[in-house]
Design a protein that fits this description.
CATH superfamily of one domain: Valyl/Leucyl/Isoleucyl-tRNA synthetase, editing domain
Structural class: alpha+beta
CATH architecture of one domain: Alpha-Beta Complex
Bound molecules: ligand ANZ, zinc ion
Number of helices: 25
Shape: globular
Distance between the termini: 61 Å
CATH topology of one domain: Isoleucyl-tRNA Synthetase, domain 2
Strand content: 15-25%
Number of strands: 31
Amino acid sequence: MSYPFKKIEKKWQNRWKSGNFKIWKAKDFIGKKIYILDMFPYPSGEGLHVGHVENFVASDILARYYRMKCYQVLHPMGWDAFGLPAENYAIKMKKNPITFVPKNIKRYKEQIQRLGLSYDWSREINTTDPNYYKWTQWMFLKMYELGLVYEKEAPINFCPSCKTGLANEEVIDGKCERCGSFTEIKNLKQWHIRITAYADRLLEDLEELNWPENIKEMQRNWIGKSIGYEVYFKIKNKESYINIFTTRLDTIFGVSFIALSPENPLVKECIEKDYYFAVENYLNNYFERKREKKFDLEISGVFSGSYVSHPITGESIPVWISDYVLPDYGTGAIMGVPAHNKFDFMFAKKFMLKIKPVISKEKDVFENNIELPYENFGYLINSFDFDGLSSQEAIEKIGEHLSERGLAKKAVYYKLRDWIFSRQRYWGEPIPLIRCNNCGIVPVSEKDLPVMLPRVKYYEPTGTGESPLKNIKNWVITKCPKCKNLAERETQTMPQWAGSCWYYLRYIDPLNKKSFADYKKLKYWLPVDMYIGGAEHAVLHLLYARFWHKVLFDLKLVPTKEPFIRLINQGIILGPDGEKMSKSRGNVINPDSLVNKYGADSLRIFEMFLGPLSDTKQWDNQSIVGPYRFLSRIFKASRIIKKNKIKKDEPNILKQLNINIKKVTNDIENIKFNTAISSCMEFLNFVEKNNFQISKKSWLKFVKILFPFAPHLSQEIWSLFGNKKLLDYEKFPEFDLRYIEDETKKIIIQINGKKKDEIEISDKDLDIEKIKKLVLEREKIKKNLVNKKIKKIIFAQNKIINLVTD
Ligand code: ANZ
Ligand code: ZN
């Protein structure tokens, strides 16, 4: 069985193209809108991956569906085209990315068009286009004006033999990807953006987002807000104090040592004479390991010779120096409580320090016989006046006690760090700042934007770890915008994240010359209603973009607090061998060959039919035959039905048709494309069993609901039946409840998770309140509930109702 998909797909693709894709052009300000966005791809030399296809087909189904539901649909595509691979390839081939990036884009675009994806190409953008990156630079300068940009030394990876700075991706197991030498850490002045100033808002506003819970949790952990206390421990025989950060002030009576990070400036002050050599030895060793990125698995440390006094008991506590205390978190110093923290416990075991339990699991149990370390909250023991308090109460009380005496204060710390914004790279947006000997750092004037990336022949690494742009003297030397003397341009470039922080805004008004986008248009289109892409962007891209958007919101340049209201992650597709697809494993599936063999519509349906969109799925080379046969059967059925003279359909046909429409409508709106497709398959089986006895009108309704999934074939059948117009703006069929009223569902009734009864409920009653009423009226259930009180009713998956009692 076969159908002429090649001819059909070519015909309609040409038709869409010859109309300049106007059919998919989103119009501003007309009616209700929906913004359906894909994470835009990086146009590598390899072309589209089946994972892209999964993402783009899913969003295309939504875009086509909502168009048929009379929405203005904004569904754009563009290119995230700056980045390291292009630059490395350029260095190798001695070719400028400016010439080959457009070639890759062309290939991507052709592949996308061969899949029948309905993008509004009039809004295409490219992050490497000067008309685009002008605004990336402009926004950077806005942040600079706000004081959100500052320069500070920060470590970069450096290969001593290639004499070049490396990106994290180029360091494999601590070695340079190119030559295999061990890389080092080199400190270089770099631009930072103060994303930490937005930490609280980035955290709080997560609550309003309809995103997968795991992604929100990753963002929460990345931001890592901890509320606790700083406590000051006085160094014995000295004037200074050691300031530690703890979230567990309730354990303060169990402190048996203080530990400083080797990088804490107080280390110097704490070293006592007799300990000098041991400490110096330890520090040298630590810094050497750090430079070479070799980390010991075992905790190490050294005693400084100093003691502090306990702020409540006055007891002497030894001060240690240890690498398990992070230099850039909290105050870089901790109080060690071995009985209640596993790292402190390991440290105490190794150096034979005291382990004193001060928290018990149960109230009024003063003898602790639980296994140590016990890290949970509990009740205080061995803690003098505070004995018996719960951990939470004790944190409050001890906090007050110490704060009143000036020995502690409430403190909040975040794991989030400021964003290192410069790269020592050629292929990125130039940072629009100028270094002048008279005036210091001077921003480029707005009228001189964009600062164009120079077109050059050679941009080999400089050997110092700095940007290759540094070598391009006639570009570097410029005039200071302030004093007009000779000055130098900043030669570091922006990270690839910069362009992807705001691209969804430019789609809204891509040709605007006066601003990055007109505010009224932003107001109409924002926020993005559905953002579809891979879960690998859980933190970096999605956090940077949210931050960038909030800065623009504060400047009153965008109308919403958040950019992406709803996020949907497509699952990873594993190779036929069950492993992640990769070139080196040789298990990458190329969509082109499948399109050639079975057609784009078959591939679209196949990928959606692999399983629920968000699940990890395994590729299976054989199964695409199924969708292909399904479409062939539809084509054949259409030719038969076209000859039908049936005017009025039998009730069972109408019933099945309406059930199908209802199912597909609900499934598309709930992003369950696989079950929508199986419902269509069932309907086709039914039509075949009934010898194709269905009216043209009803059949065409089916063709319409198939359109978002298989647009070429549906459009072909639509025109085969004499329709001249394109299907895109035909109304999506509505279901008629009259025909499906007697459709019922079996619902299982449980009490406290045990099945007690079941009930048939008609579709129109599928409403929790109605079901509750019906369930509670049932005799069996009444009997089971005698003398019991219902605490909660849980209704799961439209299948099970569980009554939870006392
Ligand atoms: C004493 C204590 C006792 C702690 C106890 C924990 C349990 P989060 O929630 O991740 O913020 N800490 C503080 N600064 C640190 C640093 N620079 N490097 C390594 N560890 C550090 O963790 C806060 C806890 O992490 C703090 O509370 C501190 O140990 C440790 F039974 O203080 B705690
Ligand atoms: Zn100057």
